[in-house]
Specification:
Length: about 210
Amino acid sequence: MMFLVSGHAVLRAIGIRTTSVSEHLAYAVGASLAVGIAGGFALNAAGFLRPLGWAIWFCAITIGATLVADSRSDAPDLPSWPSPVRVRFWQGATIALAVLLATGAYALAVRDEATYRQFSYTEFWLLPSTGDGPGRLTVGVRNAETQTQRFDVEITVDGRPFAVFRSLTIAPGETWARQIPVSISATSQKAEARLYRPDDNRLYRSVSTLVPRI
């Protein structure tokens, strides 16, 4: 429908005559591509650029062109098929090799599509909270991965342990956040948060911020 049938129907509807099968096929493919390009503009303007819209478009064009060709008294006939051509061994081998290469490329594309995994990650942040006063820090974790994850969060201020959250179970797409009160002083303090995976006790993320001074 997309590369041949619709173009063939359009050629007969507008009365274009061809002298050989190869010429007719080339014209039919070109006309089908033109129908597809016009359909893209029309469906986009109608807000119906979806698989169902494409199916309706090609079916409507093909059926409409067929009815027009059937109503014409001078609709061109199809050119006769050429006599069989003898294919030499090396020509047959070349065609077989091309088919094997195309089949292999298609199989690799299908395999890559099946094994493709969208990039996923876990967000982790530590920020001074200015909305509820200067003496608070906001720590948060967002799981943007494909499976439920379990994390440990450790927070230090100037290298001293300050807060610990163990075994946080976060589902995909879920966000965990906490506001932590912290004493402020006249000197700058550095707060650091580390995100661990308790399953392997590996450091997964590390972030830091400055605690606002008095």
